[in-house]
Write a structure and sequence with these properties.
alpha+beta; six-stranded antiparallel sheet; three-stranded antiparallel sheet; binds coenzyme A
């Protein structure tokens, strides 16, 4: 199924999304050209689209101000030190080169959500997701997960993987609801180079076939 058709169906069939986004406009000839606009209940008008190089300052503000201490602990691909600018630039450039598929949810010039499939040239990409503290609990996580799953499927990926900290109950609940299975613990390297153990979860598109 085409990306736009699959995503439209997913959004229309998810009750959590429908209750927060009664109507929307979706333009998506392919995953790299997604333009989704909606007036999101509890958030306001948003536009979801792939990141652009010009997003650097807005993404920096999202990581340092939009996310609070606890969220930055749970979502830690970006180091909060002198390496932050270079890491953000690297992520934005990798999306331009189509090595990573990274999206922003924008409210005018502000990033309210940031989510991605890293290692997108591999058969099994790595999923990451974060919602600004102010807007958590408004089902944006459901929207972002559906975008990423539809994008992975449209791109012929076999599976999607993620890891989540053992204390992240909201994340674990959301991922389980989206069909991800807990496959055990995994030691991961964070953006600052430190390591920790997280729960690894996978969504297998071929299971059941
Ligand atoms: C995790 C995160 C992405 C979820 O996005 P969100 O927009 O807040 O989530 P949603 O509103 O779409 O859904 C959250 C779900 O978790 C549930 N939930 C919330 N707190 C929970 C808890 N303590 N225990 C169990 N479930 C919980 C909600 O009820 C909801 O499920 P439901 O729709 O079945 O009722 C977001 O909260 C976030 O960015 N957190 C900080 C960074 C982070 O943890 N990133 C992920 C790293 S792996």
């Amino acid at each position: 199924m085409l990306f736009a058709d699959d995503l439209t169906q997913r959004l229309e069939e998810d009750p959590a999304i429908r209750s927060h986004m009664p109507s929307f406009s979706l333009h998506a000839p392919d995953v790299w050209s997604l333009d989704l606009r909606a007036d999101w209940e509890g958030v306001g008008p948003i536009c979801v689209r792939p990141t652009e190089l010009e997003d650097h300052a807005a993404l920096h503000a999202f990581v340092t101000q939009g996310l609070g201490e606890q969220s930055r602990f749970l979502f830690a691909p970006y180091p909060l030190d002198e390496r932050l600018d270079a890491t953000i630039r690297g992520a934005l450039e990798a999306t331009c080169r189509r090595e990573q598929l990274t999206f922003n949810a924008m409210q005018e010039d502000r990033v309210v959500g940031h989510f991605f499939l890293w290692e997108f040239t591999e058969p099994i990409p790595e999923l990451g997701i974060a919602v600004a503290d102010e807007f958590q609990g408004n089902k944006l996580g459901h929207l972002f997960m559906n975008v990423l799953i539809a994008a992975a499927q449209a791109s012929g990926k076999r599976k999607v993987e993620l890891t989540t900290h053992p204390t992240n109950e909201a994340g674990f609940h959301l991922y389980s609801k989206m069909g991800f299975s807990d496959v055990g613990d995994k030691t991961i390297t964070l953006g600052d180079g430190s390591q920790r153990s997280e729960r690894e979860m996978k969504l297998d598109f071929n299971s059941g076939c």
